[in-house]
Design goal:
With 252 residues, the chain is mostly helical. The chain has one domain. The chain starts with 7 loop residues before the first helix and ends with a helix.
């Protein structure tokens, strides 16, 4: 569909308004993130420059459809970039293992500086992620940002957690306990690749059009619209066997 896309200035303006609104009255965790940026001018300018570059890849397209695809791709990158700090936070990682983890990603760089840099990166990426959701919901009406991308984020967290848990295993007991989990890494990585491809192939049309085009099945009779599930959508792109939980239920 040849729908006119959004200008770069509009995308940036909406993002800035979104961040300000979240800082005033968003969910507690999101308020904290947005507030940290707005309260520190230097950090805000860094975020603004990074977010501007992200949106340039979107606004470089003149039509809405390719803008939606570019916004999805940019969101995947943000999900990946904030995963490290999320792992540290969720695993309550401290001490030697925390040092080992940061050395794994930052090499010989000073540990304290690495932690500070990663936390700042997490704040900026999480803030941009909020803005991407806002742009997708309020401007582009992209239904891919509902269940599909949320599911991808969960799956990426699964993969990243396994990767880090295996990398941080020290004792033979830990390595033995993680042996079966480590064997799942190729499957989890394959599942992510398939899910990403499936999401990028979803219709690049506003959600109202998506429901009309994709969910109504022509049978020669009048039918009610059906709401398709994420699993059905991904199965259509060869994802049926990618979720080990579903395979386990089949095996009984």
């Amino acid at each position: 569909m040849l729908i006119q896309g959004y200008k770069h200035a509009r995308l940036m303006e909406e993002s800035e308004l979104c961040l300000a609104a979240v800082a005033r009255a968003g969910p507690p965790g999101d308020m904290l993130l947005a507030g940290r940026l707005l309260e520190h001018p230097a950090a805000y300018r860094t975020w603004e420059a990074e977010h501007d570059r992200l949106l340039r890849r979107v606004s470089s397209h003149t039509r809405l459809a390719p803008q939606m695809g570019a916004l999805r791709s940019a969101t995947f990158a943000l999900i990946h970039r904030k995963a490290l700090f999320e792992y540290v936070r969720d695993r309550h990682l401290s001490g030697t293992k925390r040092h080992v983890l940061f050395a794994l990603f930052y090499g010989a760089r000073d540990y304290s500086n690495s932690v500070i840099a990663e936390h700042a990166n997490f704040v900026r990426c999480s803030s941009s992620r909020l803005c991407m959701d806002h742009l997708a919901a309020q401007l582009m009406r992209d239904a891919a940002f509902d269940e599909p991308i949320q599911l991808y984020q969960e799956w990426y967290s699964d993969y990243f957690r396994v990767f880090c848990d295996v990398a941080l295993a020290e004792t033979e007991e830990e390595k033995l306990a993680l042996g079966a989990v480590e064997a799942l890494k190729p499957l989890l990585k394959h599942r992510l690749r398939e899910a990403r491809d499936a999401i990028l192939k979803l219709p690049e049309v506003p959600s109202t059009v998506w429901r009309e085009v994709e969910l109504r099945r022509a049978t020669g009779e009048t039918q009610k619209l059906r709401r398709i599930s994420v699993e059905q959508t991904l199965d259509g792109f060869g994802m049926e066997d990618a979720d080990p939980r579903r395979n386990k239920s089949r095996r009984g």
